[in-house]
Amino acid sequence: MLTIVTSLLEVAAIVAIVIWLLPLWGIRIPVWGLILIVLAFGVYQFLTYRLGKRALGRKPVVSSDAMVGRYGKAITSLTPDGYVQLDGELWRASSVGSHTYRGDEVVVREVKGLTLVVTPRADKSEGSK
After folding, report:
1. H helices present in 17-57, as ranges
2. Would you say 129 and 69 are in contact if contact means Cβ atoms under 8 Å apart?
3. Same domain, yes or no: 23 and 49
4. Is the pLDDT of residue 75 over 90?
5. Cross-strand partners of 65
6. How far apart are CA 94 and CA 119, in angstroms?
7. Are residues 26 and 72 in the same domain?
8. Spatial distance between the Cα atoms of 2 and 88, rounded to a whole number of angstroms
9. What share of the chain is helix, strand, coil (3-state, %, to 5)?
């Protein structure tokens, strides 16, 4: 419901700008142009709503035990903190032991809150979990 109300308020703001503000600056947009702008904005709102709903509908990881032992890739250098990617998701991470460079494969050793404690992957011949 909130999404619909905010979308209507945004459309009303666009219409108000086109009708009252732009003519003050000498810019006149015909009615058909206003209709195209509102339709384009509606399509944009629909697509972002669908994508956002899909992302928010994903199930969160319930157990930290499910994360331990999984393999990922360092997105930033971990000196000792940075970011890693696991199964397409970006996670805050902290490296234990040696320095981990961007692009290195890592193994999750522990989960502290929403931060993964990782180490560089020692055996790269193993398949990922």
Report:
1. 22-24, 31-56
2. yes
3. yes
4. yes
5. none
6. 9
7. no
8. 29
9. 40, 25, 35
Q: What is the CATH number of the domain that holds 71?
A: 2.40.50.140
Q: Does residue 127 lie in a domain region?
A: no
Extract the tokens encoding 41.
């904005």
In this predicted model, what pLDDT tens digit does every residue of 97-117 receive, in sequence order? 778 889 999 999 988 888 899
The yes-or-no verdict on residue 74 having pLDDT over 50 is: yes
Q: Dig out the tokens for 50 from the structure.
A: 């669908």
Q: Distance between CA 94 and CA 122 in Å, rounded?
A: 17
Instruction: Tell whether pTM > 0.85.
Output: no
Residue 76 to residue 82: CA distance in whole angstroms: 6
Say yes or no: 47 and 68 in one domain: no
d(CA 110, CA 24): 61
Q: Under 8 Å CB-to-CB from 123, ≥6 apart: which residues?
A: none
The 8-class DSSP code of residue 66 comes to G
Number of domains composing the chain = 2
For residue 34, give its domain range: 2-56
110 shares a domain with 71: yes
Residue 23, preceding peptide bond in cis (omega within 30° of 0): no
Distance CA 61, CA 21 (A): 48
